[in-house]
## 1
Amino acid sequence: MNQTEMAHLVGVSPMTVSNWVREGMPCRHPGGRGRASDIDLATALEWLAKRGIRPNVARDHALVIPTDQAPDDDDSAGEDGADYKVSRAKREHYAAAREEMRYRQEAGELMVAGEVETAVADACTTIRTALEALPDALALRLAAASDENECRNLLADEIERMLEQLSADLLHATKA
């Protein structure tokens, strides 16, 4: 996830996340000018917990936990609390990602991989069949051709006709 997404998820400003990255928060890729960061949420939240920073996943603000806090305090700053926050942040992140995927699929921006594979396989089969029919369609005319230019023109015309037909077939298939 990028710095803006991380900031939104944990309830801080993007500048705060940027400062954390500069201070050494682990990132897959720290980003830079014009390139987004790639932050592993679980690793980042563990890093924050070790520094005494407990992001409020409810998106209010980041809380700083004093390091001299009593170990028997029931506040969720302990390791179990950090694990809970990491789990909750992950769950919210993936729930948001699922919702975004549903939205993008409904908007026509995403397709089911199996459907795409089937459509591509069908298109490849159609192209192969058309190419295999090319010799039969041209054999007699090529045999009767008197020179190289006539052969070239016959081939070019037949290939163009075939490609136009394939294009029309594929366009029709995508509208169906």
## 2
Amino acid sequence: MKKSISILIVLLGFSLFSACDKEDFTQPAPTNWQVSESESFNTTMTAIVVLPDNLLKQAQDNDQMAAFMGEECRGKGELVKVGEQRFYFITIKGFSDEQGKIAFKYYNSGNSNMYATEAILTFEPDGDWGSLDNPKILDLKGVK
């Protein structure tokens, strides 16, 4: 009996330690981001963004990009290809007196990984962030 308990403890300990070695990104289900439809939004701003080089190599046409204020989706990206370049155009909804910060999330359908930025952009009514000539490169990190 003692031998069985000792073996069980050793196996349990081994499984706990081996589980700690892995640092995989989460494997979320494909996104179903819906832009908040609050009728009280009275303004928008536009963001034109691109993926960093390390993610651009893995990009798929059905990947998804969205802008968030907190946990609320404020805009979904529309992929536009110009030659070999891939841009995401995002119309971000908000309020004229709003000063909240916007974060971006990106779902890569090829590797089923989620990536996100910090809350990096202050909402600016009728503002533009990035352009076709000078798009903003997002500093996306894997979500664990």
